[in-house]
Write a structure and sequence with these properties.
Structural class: mainly alpha
Number of helices: 15
Number of strands: 0
Order of helices and strands: HHHHHHHHHHHHHHH
Number of domains: 3
Helix content: over 70%
Shape: globular
Radius of gyration: 24 Å
Largest sheet: none
Strand content: under 5%
């Protein structure tokens, strides 16, 4: 009977999981603005508490933060919006020129490799359209997300107004001195800290990329900076995806030497910010297995699209926090967590 009960419980859990995943995917367009609002609010909690410590009333502090966010978003929209439209319109011509360059390289190579069939086209083997297409898709997804600015702003206001009482509610739900309370509060603090540091590093990366690409002479330098800023949130492959369109643009617009210079510049920018500055500012990992971070990138991207890829690490951290809150799913949280967390759990036992 116990075996049958366990099998039934597992079956119900799997069924519920599939229903939840399907529901999230079906409601993605509705949920994305709220997800963006939650994560923007987490980033701005520290500045709001800083204002409150200096005797600024909570309501006024929340509105000041929201006004600042609106100014930033409107500035980004006015500066980058026109570039997005121009880049999207110019995409077919850039693609044609890129294919022409590849075919010319192929024709040159036949002089040195005569055994290659003359009717063979390198452009058939190397399809570069997906790179430019991905760039346009991500930028259009950002533009679509920002069309819900009013909904996002109101959600941020309510979250910030509730923030001061959140710790009281958390301590009422869990005993203040209990391990659950300490763990949940630590996760929320770590999530906010991770998002804050990641945003600062991403901004520095984006500004540096915009300056370097402008110095090299590429069209749309602000667009490449925004692209680098956004994709810096995407773990593992984000920096690579951000570099490829800019390198291809340098190849199409300028020369092979400039394309090589652009690639080297991106390499050193990501090396400095991604491998040296960010790890030292964070001081700790995100508490997740590298494999889980990589899988989570595609999982959340499948559910929420490009925005899900950008928010994949925070969403996976939130999922782990939810799994740890229940004794029956705590083992799963340990599996998706880092080795350091697993060792810490073993020491506590």
């Amino acid at each position: 009977m116990r075996i049958e009960s366990n099998n039934t419980k597992i079956l119900l859990s799997l069924t519920a999981s599939f229903i939840i995943i399907y529901s999230l995917q079906a409601a993605a367009q509705l949920l994305i603005p709220f997800l963006l609002a939650i994560f923007i609010a987490l980033i701005t909690l520290k500045p709001m508490f800083w204002l409150q410590e200096r005797k600024v009333p909570g309501v006024l502090a929340a509105f000041l933060i929201v006004i600042f966010i609106m100014l930033v978003l409107s500035s980004i929209g006015s500066i980058v919006g026109s570039s997005i439209v121009e880049f999207t319109n110019a995409l077919p011509s850039y693609q044609e020129r890129l294919d022409l360059i590849i075919d010319q390289l192929m024709m040159t190579s036949t002089n040195f490799l005569p055994y290659i069939q003359s009717d063979f086209s390198l452009s058939e083997m190397i399809d570069t359209s997906w790179v430019m297409g991905l760039a346009a898709m991500l930028l259009n997804a950002l533009r679509d997300a920002l069309t819900n600015t009013l909904l996002i702003m109101f959600t941020i206001i309510f979250i910030l107004l509730e923030a001061s009482s959140f710790e009281i509610k958390l301590s009422a739900a869990f005993k203040r001195k209990s391990s659950s309370f300490v763990r949940q509060k630590a996760y929320i603090d770590n999530l906010g800290r991770y998002l804050g540091i990641k945003t600062l590093v991403s901004m520095a990366t984006g500004i540096t990329v915009a300056i370097i690409t402008s110095w090299i002479g590429l069209d749309f330098p602000l667009l490449w900076g925004m692209f680098a800023f956004l994709l810096n949130y995407v773990p593992t492959i984000g920096s690579i995806i951000a570099a490829v369109p800019a390198v291809l643009m340098a190849l199409v617009q300028l020369s092979v030497g400039d394309a090589l210079t652009t690639a080297i510049a991106f390499f050193f920018i990501n090396l400095v910010f991604g491998s040296f500055i960010e790890p030292r500012l964070l001081g700790y990992g995100v508490g997740l297995s590298p494999l889980v971070v990589f899988i989570g990138l595609f999982f959340w991207g499948w559910i929420f699209g490009p925005v899900g890829m950008i928010l994949s690490v925070p969403l996976t951290m939130a999922l782990k926090m939810g799994l740890e809150s229940d004794k029956e799913t705590e083992w799963l949280a340990i599996l998706i967590g880092s080795e350091t967390d697993a060792i810490h759990k073993m020491e506590l036992k």
